[in-house]
């Protein structure tokens, strides 16, 4: 597979990771990892969740110090004892999960700690907003620098993080899953910015589970597995199969293990659901054993519809029924009692309490059932948590560890465990494999397919067309808050879904 051309890389790496090791207790997160980052190049870092990529990123960000090994800037050994020291060395990190302060404005988030001031040493808000506006103009994003970060979509939060990194004029840009919640146009815009950074002599370290993005943007790749360095090599001449074999160290089964099931009775009915300015006249049903995918561009209203179905978000009109019985609006408890489970898109903000233990997160939806005389029974909680985390093959050191210490894929499994423990008859999964590796994707897809084969009605929201086509029995394509098309599995193609999502003539 060919890779994109770029400027000639620098002779000496701008930054080099040399034989670094990092352990947390008895768990070796990274062991003997080395790779160079050359100016003028985009360098991919790949591996399954738990391979050690996030630990490497945190070392470069100054969050973790390596136990051994060195970091070199040019030919000079450096120590990164804090994020401020990393920033001073010209290293900027865009994390997988947004880390904005919700009560500050977008401009304040971008320039926090580096706000321009007037001669009276007051913050010059006009200059700060103008500088932020210039960054968004460069990104081609119409965000208002003076609006609060609270309420921003994940896509917009990610764009603010990108602007924050660009504001530091860093020479090494680390992008940890920056495209996970972006639309195709937004990804193209980001890649254009990344290429311009490389053309200006910067080095970009790009972490993604989307192979097409890696081959589109990067020139070199480092593969990690189980915390160890497997290889660093040019991407030119490599194939996706080559990368997968190095990443997983085993033959990977079918990525979309769809089990053919004859759909049963209608379980979920949505009739004329509307919310002013968000979605309008949404009607569909889902049968037992059926997987229905909601596809469409970011902002089409997919997540908002299903949050309204579950009762998290309000609706102005419309009816939701489960097994023929109407649900109360804006009442998640009623939805749960009826057998609906919702695995949200933003697992850290909406699906987990990062500081709380794995076992407590995995049993939050069953606290009442596990309690005795109003007190939670620890033994019952632990048994329930072990049962579901074992079924989902979740990797952790101790079940009492904070769930925030797990890799992204294992966090997603804990969210699934929490909801599957309720024994749902309707499972809503919003971006079920966002930000997780190819091996874990196959496991999550197998879980979803198995649940459907056991009679669960599944609604899957996904921005990944291969996932939609590989898993869905029917595809509902949303555009601008409405259902633009319904396509059955036999006739669903990337072209037919995209035509409907974009509203082109060919959709007919």
From TrEMBL:
SUPFAM superfamilies according to UniProt: P-loop containing nucleoside triphosphate hydrolases
Localization annotation: Cell membrane
Example GO molecular function: ATP hydrolysis activity
InterPro entries from the UniProt entry: AAA+_ATPase, ABC_carbohydrate_import_ATPase, ABC_transporter-like_ATP-bd, ABC_transporter-like_CS, P-loop_NTPase
Domain called ABC transporter: residue spans: 15-251, 261-505
Keyword Secreted: no
Family annotation (CDD domains): ABC_Carb_Monos_I (cd03216), ABC_Carb_Monos_II (cd03215)
Pfam families: ABC_tran
PANTHER family: CARBOHYDRATE TRANSPORT ATP-BINDING PROTEIN MG119-RELATED, D-ALLOSE IMPORT ATP-BINDING PROTEIN ALSA-RELATED
Protein name in UniProt: Ribose import ATP-binding protein RbsA
Species for this entry: Rhodococcoides trifolii
Name of the gene encoding the protein in the UniProt record: rbsA
């Amino acid at each position: 597979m060919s890779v994109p051309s770029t400027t000639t890389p620098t002779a000496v790496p701008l930054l080099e990771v040399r034989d670094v090791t990092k352990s947390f207790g008895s768990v070796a997160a990274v062991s003997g990892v080395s790779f160079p980052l050359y100016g003028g190049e985009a360098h991919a870092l790949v591996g399954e969740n738990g391979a050690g990529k996030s630990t490497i990123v945190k070392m470069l960000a100054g969050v973790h110090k390596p136990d051994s090994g060195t970091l070199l800037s040019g030919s000079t050994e450096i120590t990164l004892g804090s994020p401020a020291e990393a920033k001073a060395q010209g290293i900027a990190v865009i994390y997988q999960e947004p880390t904005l302060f919700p009560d500050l404005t977008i401009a304040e988030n971008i320039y926090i700690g580096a706000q321009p001031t007037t001669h009276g040493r007051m913050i010059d808000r006009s200059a700060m907003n103008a500088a932020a506006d210039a960054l968004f103009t460069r990104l081609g994003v119409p965000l208002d620098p003076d609006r609060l970060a609270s309420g921003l979509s994940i896509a917009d939060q990610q764009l603010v993080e990108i602007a924050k990194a660009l504001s530091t004029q860093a020479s090494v840009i680390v992008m940890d899953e920056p495209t996970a919640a972006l639309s195709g146009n937004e990804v193209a815009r980001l890649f254009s910015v990344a290429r311009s950074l490389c053309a200006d002599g910067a080095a970009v370290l790009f972490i993604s589970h989307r192979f097409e993005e890696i081959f589109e943007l990067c020139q070199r790749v480092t593969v990690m597995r189980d915390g160890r360095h497997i290889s660093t090599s040019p991407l030119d001449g490599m194939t996706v199969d080559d990368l997968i074999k190095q990443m997983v160290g085993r033959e990977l089964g079918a990525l979309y293990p769809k089990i053919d099931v004859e759909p049963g009775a209608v379980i979920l009915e949505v009739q004329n659901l509307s919310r002013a300015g968000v979605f309008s006249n949404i009607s569909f049903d889902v049968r037992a054993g059926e997987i229905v995918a909601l596809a469409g561009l970011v902002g089409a209203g997919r997540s908002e519809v299903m949050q309204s179905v579950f009762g998290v978000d309000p609706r102005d009109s419309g009816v939701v029924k489960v097994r023929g019985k109407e649900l109360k609006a804006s009442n998640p408890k009623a939805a749960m009692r009826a057998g609906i489970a919702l695995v949200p898109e933003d697992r850290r903000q909406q699906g987990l309490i990062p500081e709380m233990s794995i076992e407590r997160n995995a049993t939050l939806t069953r606290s009442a059932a596990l309690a005795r005389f109003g007190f939670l029974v620890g033994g019952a909680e632990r048994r329930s948590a072990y049962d579901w985390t074992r079924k989902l093959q979740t990797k952790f050191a101790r079940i009492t560890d904070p769930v925030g210490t797990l890799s992204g894929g294992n966090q997603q499994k804990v969210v699934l465990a929490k909801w599957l423990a309720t024994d749902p008859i309707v499972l809503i999964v919003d971006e079920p494999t966002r930000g997780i590796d190819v091996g874990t994707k196959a496991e999550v897809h197998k879980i979803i397919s198995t649940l459907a084969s056991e009679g669960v009605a599944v609604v899957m929201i996904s921005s990944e067309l291969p996932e939609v086509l590989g898993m869905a029995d029917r595809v509902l394509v949303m555009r601008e808050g409405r259902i633009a098309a319904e396509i059955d599995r036999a006739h669903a193609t990337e072209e037919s879904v995209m035509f409907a999502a974009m509203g082109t003539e060919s959709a007919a």
